[in-house]
Amino acid sequence: MAHSNADALDAFGRALNLNLSFNSDGVCDLILDDGTVITLEGDPAGTSLRVNGVVGHLPEPPSAPVLRLLLQANFNGQGTSVSSLGLDHVSGDVVLG
């Protein structure tokens, strides 16, 4: 059983046959073959880990119906369960965390 985020990441990496580790900022980016990036972030000694992945891109300019759908999905987890959707203000990506 993992006792820390570092232990959990190590076990996850072994299951995937990959060498995974946190950088000095407590971040590990897992880049899939299709270029998808899954970011795992947390204190390596801690036990709370945040996982984020891009699920889409906000159209330019952002439309009210799209923003409304994102807000509706986040409302009490109706479309996201225990996760949440957010917008990366730099890239415009829609991120599921």
Quick synopsis:
The protein is of the alpha+beta class.
Characterization of the model:
Strands 1-2-3-5-4 form a five-stranded antiparallel beta sheet, with helices on one face. It is built from two helices and five strands; from the N terminus they run αβββαββ. 24% of the residues lie in helices and 26% in strands. With 97 residues, it is an alpha+beta fold. The mean pLDDT is 88.
What's the overall average pLDDT, rounded?
88
Quote the distance from N terminus to C terminus: 24 Å
Beta percentage is: 25-35%
Shape: elongated
Notable traits:
single chain, 97 residues, alpha+beta, five-stranded antiparallel beta sheet
Annotate the secondary structure layout.
Elements lengths: L4 H12 L10 E5 L5 E5 L8 E8 L6 H11 L10 E3 L5 E4 L1
Antiparallel strand pairs: 1-2, 2-3, 3-5, 4-5
